[in-house]
Amino acid sequence: MVGQKAYYAPPLVTPNKPVIFYEEACNGCNLCVEACMMDVLLPNTEKKKPPIVAYPDECWYCGCCLMECPKGDDAMAVKYPIMHNARWKDPKTGKHYRLGMPDNPLPPNLRPPVE
Amino acid sequence: MTQPSLDWPYPIKYGTLSEVDSDILIIGGGLAGLTAAITSVKKGLKVVLVDKGGSKYSGKAGSGIDHYHDCPNPASPVTAQELTASRIKSSKGYINAIQKYITAKEGYDVLLELESYGAKVRDTQNSFTGAAFRDEKTKLLFSNDYVNRYILLVWGKTFKPALYKELKRTDVKLYERVMTTSLLTEKGKQGSRVVGATGFNIRTGQFYVFRAKAVILCSGNMGDRGWVFSSELQGIGGRNGPGLVSGDGHSMAWRAGAKLTLMEQTASVRRHRWTTEGSYTTSWFPASVVDAEGKEIPWVDGEGNPISNVSDRCKLPIGQLTRGGSGAPITDVKASIRPSVPSLIPDLEERIKTGEYKLPLYCDFPSMPEHERRAVYGFKIANEGTTWLAYHNMTRAGFDPDKHQLQIYEEPPVGGGYGWRRQLGGGVVVDWDLKSSLEGLYIAGDQMFGGATGPGALTTGRYAARKAAEYAAKAASPVIFQSQVEAEKARVYAPIKRQNGIEWKELASGLAKVMQHYCGDTKSDERLQIGLRWLDELARGEAQIAYARNPHELMRLLEVFSLMSCSQAILHQSLARKASSKQLQFKRSDYLQDDSEQWHKFITIRQQDGDVKIEDMPIDYCGDLAKNYEKHCCL
Fold first, then answer.
1. Please, are residues B451 and B427 in contact by the beta-carbon 8 Å criterion?
2. Residue B232 has pLDDT above 60, yes or no
3. Which residues from B are below 8 Å from A44, CB to CB?
4. 3-state secondary structure of B109
5. N or C: which terminus of chain B has fewer CB atoms within 10 Å of its end residue's CB?
6. Which of A37, A105, A109 is facing B57, going by the closest CB pair?
7. In chain B, which among 4-63 make CB contacts under 8 A with chain A?
8. Secondary structure of chain B: what % helix, strand, coil (to 5)?
9. What is the CA angle B631-B633-B635, rounded to 5?
10. Given an 8 Å threshold on Cβ–Cβ distance, is B396 in contact with A35?
């Protein structure tokens, strides 16, 4: 460990990363950039690459970027910071769960909203 | 990993000037602006719309709404007159009755118009057949009050996309990502006819001069910004709406010399929302609540009698309408206590403290009837702008309201920090033409005093467009005063000419502190005067060394300047009201008497030649609702 390199980089301006792109799936169509009313995202100067999350502290978590994305959950995620994650429990088993918990045993609930 | 420093990806066009002429200029692309644009262009006029955001999703309703407030409709026994009279009564007159009446008269019509553009407003898929909140004949759905039926449930996520699509089919010239920075007036004077506006592109920095016969200002109010700035809170320190709602329109109107009122009214700021997002009085209502041991928290009706049935929580006698929401001031009363209407037991907080009910509390979805459960979680939460994301992420993480109980955070609701307030219902004074006190300047949506709901924005957008069109047809050609443009251009570009200094966030924090300390929970002449002094020093001092590295940061900085301008108006208005007012949540330590007869009125403020003029408006300024509407509505 002696001699291991360390480095300094300016810290994130916000406690969390609200918008995350999955580089393998995102093709840089930039529809999310056009959807964002706060102009939080900047198009990448490299074509077909995901946008840059330039102003994460201005995101208000409306999710319009995700709504517009043609690939949806496959290409991106919008996440609240930990302190904002909801908790719930199953009254039958007494077990507790929360959004973002590690090793979440629950299967996804894929029921769509009311048509 | 941190993100690298980048070249700005858009072409920079600082200093490039574009001149755009129109019959009608619409500032703001939310519900009000889009509707105003569609209405006026269909009269054959040349229409320009300018939006700081991208118009498909911009504004408070951009990402979706679930409720359509205060809208008489074929399935409701309530009339526009009754509804408006009730709102006037419950707010002690401190509302914009003109706007409320227009909303009540035209809300249903505009809903049908939206439906014709492809928005979904009724249960065509029959998801709720047989539910107590559905009208079988019209397939309309209702919330909060299943008897009086004037608050509808709507697929509000479809509204703005439908309006945007319709707008793109018309000849409206749309300028997205352009921030409007000032109103231009005849001879450049405060108080004269409005002849256009200036703006700049928030990606390229290009400058615009818009010249128009009539202007409709509908860029929203201050949102949650002003008193609060903290990176601990999301979205530039505010959670009631997007940060782009930053008082730009109020600031422009104030600087142009228009009359404002109700700027002294405020509400408290809360840290967390009920179950992470959304409001208990609307989106989560009337979910059942249990304590940590599964004991149900009872509901009672207006007289304190227990209610056993979920649907009965939404039943009031005919004529007795719910308080809250839709422009009526939200009081400090906790969300669970709504006098005279069904609610959770009013002494819940006490009974938690004595240990009768144990924290944390939970929304007990599994125990609710299927329709009620689905209406809250599968419908309202999935359509409302701030909760859609919660719906999306929670369901994918396995949350199932059929099986799971959702924890409640506000137990009971926590207040904000010292002096944390948010502006409520302040705005531009309008008459029955929805005209401001300035010739040529019309107002729609949240821009006018009293604040607007979704239908409020939609209906006043249409109405203001009809009146502005009527005026524009006869108006003289607008003449721009060149030195007013030059002065504004210099003001807008000054920050990008500096290489360093302070950034917009520090200035925003500085402003927040001034407002918290000198215009916070309790006010006094002395403190308000100090507030004005510090605000002035901030404007002449730190604001003059603020810099921006790119057009986006320039936009954020200019928003802080807008907030400073609004704060100036708030301080002046607060000084002018030499009395406390419970209704306005306005506490003075030097004038303790609450709402005396003498002070039961609107106070208006405006600037003229740099002076602040204080005037009055009687509490019943709206006059005879039906007669005035008939006379002015232009239908």
1. yes
2. no
3. 9
4. helix
5. N
6. A37
7. 6-7, 9, 53-54, 56-59, 62-63
8. 35, 15, 45
9. 110
10. no
**Which of A16, A62, A68 to mutate to test binding with chain B, by most B CBs within 10 Å of its CB?**
A62
Evaluated on CA atoms B360, B366, B367, B369, the torsion sign reads positive
Percent of chain B with pLDDT over 90: 72
Residue pLDDT, tens place only, B493-551: 999 999 889 999 899 999 999 999 999 999 999 999 999 999 999 999 999 999 999 99
pLDDT of residue B290: 93
Reported as a single tens digit per residue, the pLDDT across B299-338 is: 888 778 888 889 888 887 655 555 544 333 222 222 333 3
- Strand intervals (E) in B202-311: 207-217, 260-261, 266-268, 289-290, 299-300, 306-307
Phi-psi category of B598—alpha, beta or left, where left has phi over 0 and alpha has psi -120 to 50? Answer: alpha
Say which CATH class A19-98 falls into.
alpha beta
- Please say whether the beta carbons of B208 and B198 come within 8 A: yes
What is the torsional sign of CA A97, A99, A103, A104?
positive
Domain boundaries, chain A: 19-98
Q: State mean pLDDT over B448-452.
A: 93
Q: Nearest-CA neighbor of B380 among B404, B372, B456?
A: B372
B242 vs A: CB within 8 A: yes
For A11, what's the count of Cα atoms within 13 Å in the CB-facing half-sphere? Answer: 4
Q: Which residues of A touch B276 (CB under 8 A)?
A: 80, 84-86
pTM of the entire structure? 0.93
Instruction: Report which of residues B572 and B236 the model is more confident about.
Output: B572
Asked if B127's CB is within 8 angstroms of A115's CB, the reply is: yes
B395–chain A Cβ distance below 8 A for any pair? yes
C-alpha B572/C-alpha B613 separation (Å) is 10
In the predicted structure, residue B198 carries a pLDDT above the cut 60: yes
Give the C-alpha separation, B523 to B514, whole Å: 13
Nearest CA among A49, A19, A50, A21 for reference residue A36: A19
Contact A75, A69 (CB under 8 A): yes
Q: Where are the domains of chain B?
A: 274-407
Express each pLDDT in B484-495 by its tens digit: 999 999 999 999
Considering only residues B91 and B270, tell me which one the structure prediction assigns the higher pLDDT.
Answer: B91
Tell me how far apart the alpha carbons of residues B436 and A74 are, in angstroms, rounded to a whole number. Answer: 49
Facing residue for B177 by CB, picked from A39, A101, A108: A39
Mutate to test the interface with A, among B10, B57, B359, B509 (most CBs of A within 10 A): B57
Q: Which of B497, B12, B483 is nearest to B207 (CA)?
A: B12
Mean pLDDT of B144-148: 86
Mean pLDDT of B15-22: 96
Asked if the Cβ–Cβ distance from B393 to A81 is below 8 Å, we say no
Residue written as token pair 């940060």: B243
Q: How are beta strands B17-27 and B67-68 bridged, if at all? A: unpaired
Q: Tell me which of B416 and A82 has the higher pLDDT.
A: A82
Among the partner-chain residues B62, B389, B399, the one whose CB lies closest to the CB of A88 is B399
Asked if residues A23 and A77 have their Cβ atoms less than 8 Å apart, the reply is no
